[in-house]
Amino acid sequence: MNREKASQIRSLIGQFGLIVVSVLVALLAETWWAEREERQAEQQILIDAASEFRQNIAILDADMSANKAVYDYLLHVQAMSDPELFAFSDTEVSDMFAVDKQVNAAFDPAMGSIDALVRGGELQFITDRELRIHLARWSALLTKAARVELLHSDILMAGLLVIPAFAADNTWTKEERRQSRDTLILTMDTLSLNIDTMSELRTTAEEVLERLAEIT
Asked: Which end of the chain has a smaller Cβ tally under 10 Å, C or N?
């Protein structure tokens, strides 16, 4: 009887061990499968990211070109003396201070998988440490660019306060001309910072593409 009980106990232990091993194997298999699916999803995101950042570089090139043209125009306005400014007709001054001559291009990045990760704060999904560093810098520069754009817009809005005074009589007084010119000159610093930030974004986008080429 003791032998029979011992045999039963050994059998139960064996069955229990088999169950434990089966559960562990199932858990390991499930973990392996989940990690495999995550890595496949990551690879697809990285492939999509290459296209996304090529688009961002093209957008940045166009924006910087537009902003440099505005900056060059502002340099021309800055160099203008009071007598030169006062010599223009009201129509010419209106054209000089037209919105399209002073509004800069604000960078609007291409939307995609990486953009969603960056904005969602989920960069840990990217396993490559160097790529995460580049993307974290990209995210910080996007925040900086938005702040610079907001400051630039605030200065421009202050300059637009002169417009109602002109509209009241369709005449640009000397003081209104000076004020509008001085406001435009004030925007040169923020516009220059805007261009510099876009240049940093472009450099970072190139670094992202280089890293993507190495790991995909």
From this structure: N
Task: List Cβ<8 Å contacts ≥24 apart for 189-194.
Answer: 190/148, 190/151, 190/152, 190/155, 191/67, 191/70, 191/71, 191/74, 191/104, 191/152, 192/71, 193/148, 194/67, 194/104, 194/145, 194/148, 194/149, 194/152
pLDDT attached to residue 85: 93
- C-alpha span between 160 and 99 (Å, rounded): 9
Closest CA to 201 of 121, 119, 118, 144: 144
Segment holding 77, helix H or strand E: helix 2-78
* pLDDT tens sequence across 168-189: 677 888 988 888 888 888 888 8
**What are 20-70's pLDDT values in tens digits?**
666 776 676 665 555 665 666 677 778 888 889 999 999 999 999 999 998
> 183 with 158: CB under 8 angstroms?
yes
Rg (CA), the chain: 31
